[in-house]
Specification:
It is a single chain. This protein has a single domain, classed as RelE-like (YaeB-like fold, 2-Layer Sandwich), CATH 3.30.2310.20. It is 41% helix and 25% strand. The protein is globular. The N and C termini lie far apart (35 Å). Strand 4 and strand 5 form a beta hairpin.
Amino acid sequence: MISFRPDIPPHVADVIRALHPELKQLIKAAIRAIVADPECGEPLKRELDGLQKYRVRRFRIVYAIDRKRQVIPLMAVRPRRSVYEELTERIRRKA
């Protein structure tokens, strides 16, 4: 089995640090699950094609799978109501 490692950028780490302790533990457990099995999430579509999502209560963890480097870059950890719009906007600004 290939072992992956998470890549947590500062803006995602800041969000996780600010969460309620109980939710923070659930997010960390979800990240461990994603690293153990990157295919456990659901694929996204349209502008976010190529990314996966993983649900933790009302939050979503959006991530990519870099098989070549064996890394799971975390793109966002946000509430469901805003995560997709904010991430799509960030991707559009970079393009």
